């Protein structure tokens, strides 16, 4: 029988696509968000350390970075 016209095969394939309402992606979202925040925190802290303490050259882009990082942390708390 042709698999494209087999009704039973179509029904079986649509059954496998249904979403279980008890499954959630919350742990995945929390994990990815936490990892992204950790990386951004480390990168921001290292940049502030190098630009402010080592090079002693603080530019406008560093101020924008700190402001945007602060705003991102505020938005993540919500």
Q: What share of residues are in beta strands? A: under 5%
Spatial extent as radius of gyration: 24 Å
Mean pLDDT score: 83
The total count of strands amounts to 0
Number of helices: 3
Biggest beta-sheet profile: none
Which stretches of 5+ consecutive residues score pLDDT under 50?
none
User: What is the number of domains?
Assistant: 1
From the N-terminal CA to the C-terminal CA, the straight-line distance is 56 Å
The helix-strand sequence is HHH
What is the helical fraction, as a range of percent?
over 70%
- SS-derived structural category: mainly alpha
Q: What is the general shape?
A: elongated
Q: Would you kindly provide a written description of the structure presented here, covering whatever features stand out?
A:
By secondary structure, this protein is mostly helical. The chain has one domain. Helix content is 72%, strand content 0%. Helix 2 (26-54) packs antiparallel against helix 3 (60-77). It is elongated. The termini are far apart. The model has no long low-confidence stretch (mean pLDDT 83). Keywords: Membrane, Transmembrane, Transmembrane helix. The chain crosses the membrane at residues 28-50.
Topology readout:
Layout: H1 7-15, H2 26-54, H3 60-77
Helix pairs in contact: 2-3
In short:
The protein is an all-alpha fold.
Features of the shown structure:
72% helix, elongated, single chain, 78 residues, mainly alpha
């Amino acid at each position: 029988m042709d698999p494209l016209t087999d009704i039973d095969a179509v029904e079986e394939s649509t059954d496998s696509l249904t979403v279980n309402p008890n499954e959630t992606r919350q742990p995945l979202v929390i994990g990815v968000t936490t990892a992204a925040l950790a990386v951004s925190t480390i990168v921001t802290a290292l940049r502030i350390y190098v630009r402010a303490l080592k090079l002693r050259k603080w530019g406008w882009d560093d101020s924008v970075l700190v402001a945007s990082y602060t705003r991102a942390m505020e938005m993540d708390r919500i």
